[in-house]
Amino acid sequence: MEQEMISDSNVVDGESDTSKVQKGELMTTNMNQTPSANRTHIGIFGKRNAGKSSLINAITGQNYAIVSDVLGTTTDPVLKSMELLPLGPVVIIDTPGLDDEGELGALRIQKAYQILNKTDIAVLVIDASSGITKEDSEILKRIHEKEIPCVIVVNKSDICPNCNLEDLQLPDSDSAILVSSKTGEHIHELKELLAQQSSQDTIQKSIVADLLKPLDFVVLVVPIDSAAPKGRLILPQQQTIRDILEAKASAIVVQETELAETLNSLGKKPKMVITDSQVFKKVSAVTPDDILLTSFSILFARYKGNLKTLVNGASALDSLKNGDRILISEGCTHHRQCDDIGTVKLPNWIRSYTKKEVEFEFTSGTEFPLDLSSYKMIVHCGGCMLNEREIKYRLKCAEDAKIPITNYGTCIAYINGILNRSLEPVKDFL
């Protein structure tokens, strides 16, 4: 995780629209504000020409999505980051039609289904004139299986004025609403309904703030090497600093080469040292035992995933054999450097620790294998660019396949024999 970038090539930020902001309906944003991973992901599903793209334009109040009478205008999932009130920061995902045809059509449908893995709220768009179809029923079944909150939107009420929800025999368990993307009928009510479906916890989770008291201070260790993004900190580091400030605590940021001198000159013992995992060994050696030590990866494992699962997965390193395959998966798609942690440093450390000739495969971004049976172990990044639902989906895939899974920070701490120490700040959550 430690080299994950802020930018997300799959998210297209919108252009500002002052009038919409004044109305309190739409505010576009960028990654300097709410990160994509922290936004509610709304997936828009339905058949071709059900009006998915038109509905998005109606919800956002701008001509964002291309609208055409030609079947299959939307050929790939398209993500847009914005703020949609009253829901707040969201990512709206426009998907290909579920009834697409041919070989390419089948691939597009598969992509649409994959979007469910990151969807917090599903919107199923149904053409009022045709009613619910087998394709609609199939996606609805999958939505239910994944326990995703769902709104059924019956669109095109303007061309079917006599339509009503009762006649369409929609599932009683789902919220449903009759709208017209063309006239704007019930669009406001739809936005209110989406807000009601939000799965966000009422209790705000913290990266580290709940482990601190006001006036505590924390030392963050941030290496600056050839793989670090020029002129900026990576997303987990930025988020952690903000979280420390939320706790009314203070943060000091140093490189690993300045850590020892910094600790000696502070005059006050810091509550905690949080380090980039790739310098775990160096940082542990110079951090006194009476100072808590952990990594960004471990904190994010607690924040987003199942820390206990990832900790248990690290022990799989001890049972690897020659020829075993390890999947190293990252949630972002940054440019690889010569000393990239995921593709260079981590494989070298694993080979050195295990003394085995193991094989590595790599995935990044939204790519994650459907079949994990060929792997003996999965090492995942911290997932700062992935929302919680997708992280949990990947963990569940590994669990179902009975493949041990860990993350960068946990794996590196285990290799260096300091995992127990690095878990001390979060031991109550194991």
In words, what does this structure look like?
Strands 1, 2, 3, 4, 5, 6, 7 and 8 form an eight-stranded mixed β-sheet that branches. The protein has a four-stranded parallel β-sheet with strand order 10-9-11-12, with helices on both faces. It is α/β, with parallel strands linked by helices and 430 residues long. The protein has helices at residues 18-23, 52-60, 102-115, 134-145, 187-196, 235-246, 259-265, 280-286, 296-304, 307-314, 341-354, 388-400, 408-415, 419-423, and strands spanning 11-13, 26-27, 40-46, 78-84, 88-94, 121-127, 150-155, 175-178, 217-221, 250-254, 272-275, 292-295, 325-329, 359-363, 377-380, 405-407. The radius of gyration is 24 Å and the shape is globular. Helices cover 31% and strands 18% of the residues.
Q: What topology emerges from the helices and strands here?
A:
Elements: E1 11-13, H1 18-23, E2 26-27, E3 40-46, H2 52-60, E4 78-84, E5 88-94, H3 102-115, E6 121-127, H4 134-145, E7 150-155, E8 175-178, H5 187-196, E9 217-221, H6 235-246, E10 250-254, H7 259-265, E11 272-275, H8 280-286, E12 292-295, H9 296-304, H10 307-314, E13 325-329, H11 341-354, E14 359-363, E15 377-380, H12 388-400, E16 405-407, H13 408-415, H14 419-423
Parallel strand pairs: 1-4, 3-5, 3-6, 6-7, 7-8, 9-10, 9-11, 11-12, 13-14, 13-15, 15-16
Antiparallel strand pairs: 2-4, 4-5
